[in-house]
Amino acid sequence: MTRSARPARFTLHPDFAVGDVDPRLFGSFVEHLGRCVYTGIHEPGHPTADGAGLRGDVLDLIRELGVTAIRYPGGNFVSGHKWEDSVGPVDQRPRRLDLAWRSTETHRFGLSEFIRFVRAVGPQAEPMMAVNLGTRGVAEAIELQEYANHPSGTALSDLRAAHGDKDPYDIRLWCLGNEMDGPWQTGHKTAEEYGRLAAETARAMRQIDPALELVACGSSGRSMETFAAWEATVLAETYDLVDHISLHAYYEETDGDRDSFLASAVDMESFIETAVATCDHIGARLKSTKRINLSFDEWNVWYQRRTALRPEEDWQEAPRLLEDHYTVTDAVVLGSLLIALLRHADRVTIACLAQLVNVIAPILTEPGGPAWRQTTFHPFAQASRHGRGRVLDVRVDSPTYDTAKFGAVPLLHATAVRADDGTVTVFAVNRGQTEPLPLEVTLLGMDLTTVVEHTAVADADPEARNTLDDPERVTPHDVAGTRLGDGVLTATLEPLSWNVIRLA
Ligand code: AHR
């Protein structure tokens, strides 16, 4: 129930800022899972494929999406992965059981193909490589690092050259395992076991290259029984050796409770704030001046309750797994999750939308056929394009609505980013399902006179989707009536909408 129809308000001033946006906040994730790689980004023989088998239509969409850091090769997959299987002549690579997703991995796409893919995405993209700390350990991590990054003159760097890649890949950003707190993880560990292993691995990797950026595994969800205690134990071991700790969160509508689903970012913001508090608590205990930042390296809407591995699909190559088809409601929630990340840009320096293609992804493909944008593609692409610069402090005064999970929640969720050229973009979500929400923003200390555009993702049907037959059903549309005069921006936000308002 909406409590009041009064306008939602906030004030912007350039002197009151959260922090600068790290471009890696707009990262994504490619896992060997289902069809993310095979028939997603890689499909030799597809009409748009290049000589390396990379789909040109998908690459175009990924560039438009504007992703930066791309995490690889998993996910749960990495915890049973032998990196050596994924290099060298493709026809000699082994087929292996992937225990995580009960699939057969052919390794037709591996490390060098991934690096080629990241370079094809463009200069804004960078690899974020995960090492296996489930079934493997320190030795294999530094061997992979030597293969990938050492220039030449050692067995593994020369092997890379013999495989055709003379120049090192120069991977700067590394994840020390994946979700090691989760009992489902191959090689799952206690916090003490993982903390020691992560510290030893980080120390060895830094012996080769002290300047690497390293991410330790935090909790795979804040509902994990070990959340916060896990982070505290792991950071007590690794504080001086790592730069970031990871967070993962997925949201879905349950039991028809759309009001709570639309407030998912309340949970995400509180997860971030608790993780920051835990990092800083360990820093204080260690009397350290160093700050650990957050890598929110898996986040999205994911209908996990509808996801089941089907026995009849066991050990198939690239089966259709986790192919969620997103609605306009999902797009609005995803936009709100982006707002949550931006509102914490001072501490969230990396974030990866999980995943990139086909698997809970903003892009869908058909083998041999087209690729298209899901509803969720649009808020991400717009935020990545216009959300670069300094996040301004937004303190919302908004009418509220009642939710079963979070109590009274503001109808307005918003942030604002000021670019280097002084232009400002307001990102705003109206969580209300039925009523338009009037918005008033007071602009102080900035010479802003013009509304460049106001677009919204919204639809009369909250279940509207983009499909193979109707791929443009949901796209951002222009919103009329938005004004800027006497230093006050006024707009009306449609019910259940994601809004981008650009001011110059
Ligand atoms: O993104 C899908 C899976 O979710 C990842 O493999 C895993 O890390 C997480 O549980």
Automatic annotation (TrEMBL):
Enzyme Commission number(s) from the entry: 3.2.1.55
Record keyword Hydrolase present: yes
UniProt xrefs under Pfam families: Alpha-L-AF_C, ASD1_dom
Organism superkingdom: Bacteria
Keyword Hydrolase tagged: yes
Record's catalysed reaction(s): Hydrolysis of terminal non-reducing alpha-L-arabinofuranoside residues in alpha-L-arabinosides
Domain Alpha-L-arabinofuranosidase C-terminal: start-end pairs: 297-497
Entries under Gene3D superfamilies matching the protein: Glycosidases (3.20.20.80), Golgi alpha-mannosidase II (2.60.40.1180)
Keywords: Carbohydrate metabolism, Glycosidase, Hydrolase
Subunit and partners: Homohexamer; trimer of dimers.
Family: Belongs to the glycosyl hydrolase 51 family.
Name the record gives this protein: non-reducing end alpha-L-arabinofuranosidase
Organism name: Streptomyces huasconensis
Origin organism lineage: Bacteria, Bacillati, Actinomycetota, Actinomycetes, Kitasatosporales
